[in-house]
Design brief:
mainly alpha; 4 domains; 371 residues
């Protein structure tokens, strides 16, 4: 059913002699794709295309033949396969066996809810297996040429650049991040990964590689320059208003930053008189109204906050729950200022009397989490 013309890259057609239905595919070696892919899976009843599998079982192997539609380079496989799929209309059930209307893509196909659930469960099971992930990573890296990666990347970028697609992606992301369970899982995963020395080393190597690239350094420089321009937008009247809001009205720095459309760090620099906001000869402003001051929280609340933090809950979540600032939560967790007299709480909820060693461990953990 195959000849020597298949020993090259190109687009092929599998035809049913009985009803003249066709299946269009492509491969870097059409003969390998035919013998080791289609024939092997069809004979064992494990082919991924149920229409072709049923026809094979019904009419028998002798009813099918393969022929070359077009020989082409590997870089043009997707383009030419798409041409023949459209020309022969093989996604029409009366004419062909193809499922996907797009070459090298599942777009345009409709799966049942049961099929989606089964695929999701299988994917989660496989991705949780480190051996599977390592094997797949090695196989993909060996199989994909640079041209194929660039073509796939361009295809995905074009798809995501569509306004309706971007709107759907943003809506899904916003819905996910509004889910407390999702945020908790993301925080726990970040903490877990940063606690792995191999992951930290990999991130360090990646940062060094990025900084070795001139275009990356240029992008970072441009971002810093844009931030500097944004900082210059504050007028003297706005600077005075920021100081007044913080000292006289007890407004937090996060709220001031949101009100003026600047970063929290910039607000801190304005209040503390750092950089271009220096006020020679003027004393540092003192806060007259403090919101979230220590006496609002009882010792029971403080111990509970430390316990929740030790169990992996985020500082932002704790601040929102108790109605205080993130800085106050950080002081409580690390035993700073007015909270140093209370014993730290280790993971599991029990108080600890291990002293400075535990405090140091808490500070190291806090630094890793903030990364």
């Amino acid at each position: 059913m195959a000849d020597d013309s298949l020993n090259q890259s190109g687009v092929y057609c599998i035809r049913n002699r009985v009803n003249d239905k066709r299946y269009v595919g492509s491969g870097r070696s059409m003969s390998v794709r035919w013998r080791r892919g289609h024939v092997k899976e069809l004979r064992t009843g494990r082919h991924g295309n149920p229409y072709l599998q049923r026809a094979w079982d019904k009419y028998g192997e002798q009813a099918f033949e393969i022929s070359v539609l077009e020989a082409c380079s590997v870089e043009r496989l997707i383009e030419r396969e798409q041409y023949w799929i459209d020309t022969l209309d093989v996604t029409n059930r009366c004419k062909g066996y193809n499922i996907c209307p797009k070459a090298y893509s599942r777009r345009g196909t409709q799966l049942s809810l049961e099929a989606r659930a089964a695929i999701a469960e299988a994917s989660r099971r496989n991705q949780s297996d480190p051996v599977y992930r390592r094997r797949m990573s090695t196989a993909v890296a060996a199989a994909w040429t640079l041209a194929m990666r660039e073509a796939k990347s361009a295809q995905q970028k074009a798809y995501r650049a569509q306004p309706d697609v971007r709107a759907r992606m943003v809506a899904v992301a916003n819905a996910n991040w509004q889910d407390e369970d999702f945020r908790s899982r993301q925080r726990a995963e970040r903490v877990r990964r940063w606690q792995e020395p191999a992951y930290r080393d990999a991130m360090t190597d990646l940062a060094r590689q990025n900084w070795a690239k001139e275009d990356y350094r240029c992008r970072v420089t441009e971002g810093v320059q844009r931030a500097a321009v944004a900082r210059r937008k504050l007028t003297d009247e706005q600077i005075g208003e920021i100081i007044d809001l913080w000292t006289e009205h007890g407004v937090t720095q996060d709220e001031i930053a949101a009100q003026f459309g600047v970063s929290t760090i910039l607000v801190s620099h304005v209040i503390r008189g750092i950089g271009r906001f220096k006020r020679p000869g003027q004393p540092k402003p003192e806060r007259k109204i403090r919101r979230g001051k220590p006496k609002l929280l009882s010792e029971t609340d403080i111990i509970e906050i430390r316990r929740l933090r030790a169990d992996g809950n985020g500082i932002e979540w704790l601040a929102e729950r108790y109605g205080v600032s993130r800085g106050l939560i950080g002081n409580i967790v690390n035993g700073l200022k007015a909270y140093a007299h209370l014993p730290p709480v280790r993971k599991g909820g029990a108080a600890s009397d291990c002293g400075d060693e535990c405090d140091e461990q808490d500070r190291i953990s806090a630094v890793l989490v903030r990364r």
